[in-house]
UniProtKB/TrEMBL annotation:
SMART domains assigned: ARM
Protein name: HEAT3 protein
Entry-linked CDD domains: Syo1_like
InterPro entries assigned: ARM-like (IPR011989), ARM-type_fold (IPR016024), Armadillo (IPR000225), SYO1-like (IPR052616), TPR_SYO1 (IPR057990)
Domain SYO1-like TPR repeats: start-end pairs: 412-668
Molecular-function GO terms, alphabetical: unfolded protein binding
Positions with biased composition (Basic residues): 1-11
Family per similarity comment: Belongs to the nuclear import and ribosome assembly adapter family.
Species the sequence originates in: Scytalopus superciliaris
Family annotation (PANTHER family): HEAT REPEAT-CONTAINING PROTEIN 3
UniProt xrefs under Pfam families: TPR_SYO1 (PF25567)
Region span, Disordered: 1-34
Gene Ontology biological-process entries: protein import into nucleus; ribosomal large subunit biogenesis
Length: 673
């Protein structure tokens, strides 16, 4: 049914805010929604703050969200974004952020309908003004060194990111109200508050994607802010993430870049991605985990010294009751060396930032590969053709391994891809994560979530590889030997484990990459390295996946490989196994799309060749398809419109027509003397 399409990624909205100290704990009773919402109107700011914090905690549980929505939680919390108490503003923004993050698209739509954007825009602009005014000192808690203006802004920006990611009306308001200026103003704090800058960068990447109405707002001054951040020299993982996100934003607004500057801009973007992808995440986890152990050891030693000091101080104080007692908190601030150490879990935050940066870079590269994508109709024409004039001129750079040049990108991007060794680094990320690093994460509860992020980076790298394979010429890929090496590498990812992979995201990514690779190799008559036994094992496992894309991919892979085998000698027995497998899928598959793909694969495998003819006779292919033809037509009438998209129905109509033609073709073979 044609080659697979390149996949585009959209930025995922941020997750719920973490609970801060003083914002409720597991030991507290969860008060009913009605009672907490009533407390939002209490004259005491502390009570209002407590209510907001309690609601914020509860809203992280999806099952309680409907109860709050029924009681108009958005209109209750919205006005508190402009409360005269700064702690109330922060906790109210945090509660709304959690509501938007955990509630999903429908809840975000409801929030916009209930006019959350009016107080949110007002808050964003007021906080932006407050950054410049000499208001920071009175609004900064001396004991905790907490900057309320920036912390409120951080919650508000994350709320804005969520809503604009999910709702077009919110995006329209963002454009109309000139929110870009305020948001960019926060970005200027990147040198002193990188966490706020990362939130802003995430928001910017979301609001600039597919938003042409915003482009005119990116004047020279706005672009200068982004370029300054992108060129910052700090080497922490958080700064690498910040630069990666800003690079993605600049790519989104590339149409505002003067043509003469496009080449240098693209090179700067890919240099940042290259920097991120060059870092070994597994080794970083090992190193950072060791750093955490050393820090905790020093902190424990300092704690012991402090306790001994307290004993001595207490003895001295007891000898002279007239001496003023010094608060223990003050002693700790002045004498405890742990205050000079990084904040809690900074090592884990650094690794998390690195993995997020790598995943983001890979997603943007995927989008870059199809950013100039033709329309859906044009794509179908391109994907069903193997004409050589669809490919760019060959480009091979010695010494850089497997090189891939995206077809749909400009010459500037082609050159930058090669100069920054992007393809080589993508390939490195397709490997399984470091075993020692995985073991560290598995046995450390706070580090365990990194396993999911490590796997996500591998899957994004495979998807990135798939996208580039779809739009590259064989010579640009490094030639036949490089493709065969890549096929062996991908086969090892599937078969190197004692148990067959079951993770759906990994299976979709690896089968998509294999499908694109085998299609490229088949079109150029390059011998394939996977054995028939491996292919059938892959398909037997993949066809039971709950993911339709995985099932479509494995059926297509079998069709591609079978069509190659049909041209060889003594392959009839293997073709029989392939034919039986595909017939069973076509007749028993619950998804009409997968069934259609199986028929299409059968047409490819048994289209021509003596071995194919022998196998077709032995499995009674013609008789089986003639009996199945009315069944398939009936399924299309009954299930087609209800279960398939317009594009899928169009493809299935072609399959139905080709089935009729294929049966007629097989009948002529039977009549041939």
């Amino acid at each position: 049914m044609g080659k697979s399409r390149a996949r585009r990624f959209r930025r995922a909205p941020p997750g719920p805010t973490e609970r801060r100290d003083g914002q409720g704990g597991p030991e507290e009773e969860e008060e009913p929604a009605a009672e907490l919402l009533d407390k939002l109107q209490h004259p005491s700011a502390e009570v209002r703050e407590y209510a907001c914090a309690s609601i914020s905690k509860l809203l992280q549980q999806r099952h309680v969200i409907p109860a709050f929505l029924q009681r108009d939680v958005v209109r209750c919390l919205g006005p508190l974004l402009m409360d005269h108490s700064l702690p109330v503003r922060e906790t109210a923004a945090g509660a709304l952020r959690n509501l938007s993050a955990c509630g999903g698209f429908e809840v975000c739509d409801d929030m916009v309908t209930n006019d959350i954007m009016t107080p949110l825009v007002a808050l964003l602009k007021e906080c932006s003004t407050g950054l410049d005014a000499n208001q920071l000192s009175p609004k900064k808690c001396r004991e905790t060194n907490k900057n309320y203006i920036e912390d409120i802004a951080n919650e508000a920006i994350n709320l804005l990111w969520n809503i604009c990611e999910c709702n077009n009306t919110a995006l329209y308001i963002f454009n109309k109200e000139g929110c870009l200026e305020a948001v960019l103003h926060y970005m200027k704090k990147f040198s002193t508050n990188v966490d706020l800058a990362i939130s802003v960068a995430n928001c910017l990447q979301a609001v600039t994607e597919d938003n042409p109405d915003l482009l005119s707002s990116f004047n020279a001054s706005a672009q200068q802010v982004l370029e300054t951040v992108m060129m910052c020299p700090e080497s922490t993982m958080k700064h690498i993430l910040l630069r990666t996100l800003i690079a993605g934003t600049i790519w989104n607004i590339k149409d505002t870049i003067p043509p003469g500057s496009l080449g240098s801009m693209v090179n700067a973007i890919l240099k940042i991605f290259s920097e991120s992808l060059a870092i070994d995440a597994g080794e970083t986890i090992i190193r950072m985990n060791e750093a955490e152990k050393n820090r905790l050891k020093l902190a424990a030693e300092a704690e012991t010294e402090e306790n001994m000091s307290d004993v001595v101080d207490n003895c001295v104080l007891s000898e002279d009751d007239n001496m003023e007692e010094i608060p223990k908190g003050k002693l700790r601030r002045e004498n405890d060396v742990s205050d000079l150490l990084p904040s809690d879990k900074w090592e884990l935050k650094e690794v998390t930032a690195l993995l997020t940066a790598q995943q983001t870079a890979l997603e943007i590269i995927v989008n870059m590969c199809c950013s100039e994508d033709p329309s859906d109709d044009e794509w179908e024409e391109l994907s069903s053709s193997d004409e050589s004039d669809l490919f760019m001129e060959n480009s091979y750079n010695e010494g850089s391994g497997l090189l891939m040049t995206p077809l749909c990108l400009s010459d500037e991007v082609h050159s930058a891809f090669l100069n920054n060794l992007i393809p080589k680094k993508i390939l490195e990320k397709t490997a399984f994560p470091n075993g020692v690093a995985l073991d560290i994460c598995m046995h450390n509860p706070s580090w365990k979530p990194l396993i999911k992020k490590l796997n996500a980076v591998q899957c994004r790298a495979l998807t990135c590889l798939h996208s580039i394979l779809l739009v590259s010429d064989v010579d640009c890929l490094g030639g036949a030997s490089a493709l065969q090496s890549l096929a062996q590498h991908l086969s090892q990812l599937v078969f190197s484990k004692t148990e067959f992979p079951t993770d759906t995201e990994f299976l979709e990514a690896i089968t998509s990459a294999l499908r694109a690779l085998l299609q490229t190799m088949a079109s150029k008559n390059i011998s394939q390295c996977m054995t028939p036994e491996q292919l059938l094992a892959l398909c037997e496992a993949g066809i039971h996946s709950s993911n339709v894309s995985v099932r479509v991919n494995v059926v297509s892979i079998l069709g591609i490989s079978g069509s190659v085998l049909a041209k060889g000698q003594d392959t009839a027995e293997t073709l029989k196994m392939i034919g039986k497998f595909l017939l069973e899928v076509a007749m028993k598959e619950s998804s009409l799309v997968v069934a259609g793909e199986a028929l299409d694969a059968l047409f490819d495998v048994f289209a021509d060749g003596e071995e194919a003819e022998k196998a077709a006779i032995q499995i009674k292919l013609l008789q089986t398809l003639k009996e199945f033809q009315p069944v398939f037509r009936m399924r299309m009438r009954k299930e087609g419109k209800g279960q398939c998209s317009t594009d899928q129905l169009c493809v299935l109509d072609n399959v139905k027509m080709n089935l009729k033609r294929f049966i007629a073709y097989q009948e002529t073979l039977g009549k041939t003397p």
